[in-house]
Amino acid sequence: MVDDLTNEATALLQDLIRNECVNDGAVESGHEIRSSDLLTGYLEGCGADIEHYEPQPGRRSVLAKLEGSDPTAPTLMLMGHTDVVPVNPDGWTRDPFGAELDDDGMIWGRGAVDMLNLTSTMAVAFKHLAQSGFAPKGTLMFLGVADEEALGTWGAKYLLDHELDAMRSDYVITESGGYQVPTPMGTRLPIMVEEKGTFWSQITVHGTPSHASQAYKTDNALVTAAEIVRRISEFRPEVRIGDTWRRYVEGLGFPSGLTDPEEIEALIGDLPVGLGRIAHSCTHTTMAPTVVHGGTKTNIIPDRVELQVDVRTMPGQSGAAAEALLMEAIGDLADRVEISSNDDPATASPIDTPLWDSLSRVTGRLCEGSALVPTIMTGGTDNRFFRRAGSVGYGFGLFSRRIGFEDYARMFHGHDERVDQESLDLSTQLWLALAEDLLN
User: Fold this and answer.
1) Which residue from 143, 221, 258, 429 has the least number of CB within 10 angstroms?
2) Assigned domain for 190 exists
3) Are 104 and 127 found together in one domain?
4) pTM value?
5) Has residue 98 been placed in a domain?
């Protein structure tokens, strides 16, 4: 049986998916105002203070706040983004914005896992607490934030640059983690406490224009760019093993060789694909060529090509070090390029905190015999902005056994994204219990 709160979370998730707040990185994309208005309408009348922030037309975030009675008590923010990444419908079994609830209790659609499922359950839990007369010592906040999928420029970054007093929070929870991992020691729940940095780079490759009908010995920027792409793709930065990765490997009972720089490369190749990608990304600087623009006409040898490369840096790694790795990968073609980058360093939060302790208590009740395991986010979340502002930020939720790690990892930015109602129920119960435990 599905209870009332899970039905509410299901309906809200479906509406968020159908709002189609697709963020392709352009200022005019996203249209998060649709979901900001939806969440506002859902929360109005629950007794909370509600504020809106719209730094660009349509790029609106909504903040709901339930003030605590004790100014010295901790503040908890539940933060869910409302935008989603673009989608190719051809690879989907169902309409990616249809938000279909199938007979097996699965809700299908872009954002079902990343992260509209958590956004909806956070809003439902917040409203339920406010309506029930919840009077905590510490303040509880819910933030439905825009622009997470494109570096947070018009969302969390803007809010912390311009509205810091309104956003201040001791503890912040957002994506990602909380999938259940069965181990011989019992169920383990990964919780994201650290995330890699982004060093997104544009590499401009120069050549010399000439007539394409006489291609012999021409200085073709596209051919040079193709060789640079090959070199970057094959480049292998050195292994970097950090404390969080060690705790993750030990906590899940993985082979100890995954923390040994001498053994890990060979072991990664034998792992399931999803886990292998995680193991590699958590222990290496990664470089993925993703976009190319170049050429003007079929019969003109191109003199300029722009490559975009998604570089993810390791904790403690500077932008200068990341650029040096790029130049090392490019090798003797370095004098043919210019590089411009966005340097957004890695961030981390400690695990010896009241938030960790509270999450341990409530998840132990909701998922009997479980234990938390710290992990690294190989992508980026809005937590990085809050960490830099002094907050402890974790990525978490709570998923049912139906959403295993391989499915969970594959659905992020992938085809056939979906989540089950049991996971919505677990996450809703998590937020309710966490607020009660931490703020009273």
Assistant:
1) 429
2) no
3) yes
4) 0.91
5) yes
Range 419-423, long-range pairs (CB < 8 A, 24+ positions)? 419/13, 419/106, 419/107, 419/112, 419/113, 419/117, 420/104, 420/105, 420/106, 420/107, 421/2, 421/6, 421/10, 421/101, 421/105, 421/106, 421/107, 422/105, 423/117, 423/397, 423/398, 423/399
Helix (H, G, I), strand (E, B) or coil at 289: strand
Per-residue pLDDT of the chain (440 residues; tens, 9 = 90+): 568 999 999 999 999 999 999 999 999 999 999 999 999 999 999 999 999 999 999 999 999 999 999 999 999 999 999 999 999 999 999 999 999 999 999 999 999 999 999 999 999 999 999 999 999 999 999 999 999 999 899 999 999 999 999 999 999 999 988 999 999 999 999 999 999 999 999 999 999 999 999 999 999 999 999 999 999 999 999 999 999 999 999 999 999 999 999 999 999 988 888 789 889 999 999 999 999 999 999 999 999 999 999 999 999 999 999 999 999 999 999 999 999 999 999 999 999 999 999 999 999 999 999 999 999 999 889 999 999 999 999 999 999 999 887 788 778 888 999 999 999 999 999 999 999 999 99
Q: For the residues of 232-254, what is the DSSP string, one character each?
A: HHH--PPP---HHHHHHHHHHT-
Long-range contacts of 211-220 (CB under 8 A, 24+ apart): 211/299, 211/300, 211/301, 212/298, 212/299, 212/300, 212/301, 213/299, 215/301, 218/301, 219/301, 219/303, 220/301, 220/302
Alpha helix stretches (DSSP H) within 132-176: 156-162, 164-167
Q: Same domain for 78 and 173?
A: yes
Q: Is 334 in the same domain as 230?
A: yes
Do 24 and 127 fall within a single domain?
yes
Assess whether the previous peptide bond of 141 is cis (omega < 30° from 0).
no
Do 156 and 289 lie in one domain? The reply is no
297 lies in the same domain as 223: yes
State the CATH number of the domain containing residue 17: 3.40.630.10
- Distance CA(238)–CA(284), nearest Å, equals 7
What are the angstrom distances between the C-alpha of 94 and each of 14, 108, 117?
14, 7, 18
Query: What is the extent of the structural domain holding 299?
Result: 197-237+285-344
- The number of domains in the chain is 3
Is the same domain home to 227 and 250? no
- Any domain includes 434: yes
Both 106 and 210 in a single domain?
no
